[in-house]
UniProtKB/TrEMBL annotation:
InterPro entries: AB_hydrolase_fold. GO terms for molecular function: hydrolase activity. This is Lysophospholipase, alpha-beta hydrolase superfamily. Keywords: Hydrolase.
Amino acid sequence: MTVSTDLGYHQAVAQFDEPEGIGPRGTLVVLPGRGESPMVYERFGKRLAADGYRVRIVGEDAHADARAQLDSPAAVSPRILVGIDVGALRALHLVQDAAVEADALILVGLPAGDGSRTWDDEIDARASCPTQQARLTDPDLLTPGLLTADRIPPELRSVTPRTGLPVLALHGADDAVSPLADARARYADAPAVRLLSVTQGRHDVLNSLNHRSVAASVVVFLESLKVGSELPELIRKENVR
């Protein structure tokens, strides 16, 4: 794993590559949420890289970096844009404006409601995993106090999850920042969305108590996408009686 050092810590591009000798299976470009540095998603990047995917995590507001990573000669198809929190809105905005070309989207914790939080409960609202909660006390990883409605850029507030691309939507069943019922309603008109709720998941389900199961669900989505954009079932449950 390498991290570029030409920008500030919160704006560096974290890079996670497939193991040596393994052919890359695709590229994920990740857009973090409010107040988050790329390294908040280090665990996710390492886990997906171990399965053969190239993962690039850009800064919260780094539109140009997202485009550059998707257009890079090192980007291997399928190319997937992953957005968390406001990053999910930004990912939708980028593909809807044809600012980037991607083969699919993974949207995590799509904002709904006012998203207002105070520092006393912000870490608890973000992640349910104790290990991740401890990490988020590091000011190099998280700038506290930014998980508020006024931190959603005006140009993103009217963005809706309508796109013809395949979409994997991941949402915490216990998300107090963006309640699951509100998110479900927002996805109702999306033509090609697969919405999964995460038990004991809060706003960031990539770092939930069940983060291993979440990562496995992401891999299932990616592997299905490699077969076809209609996302065919690769493993089926068979009746034994």
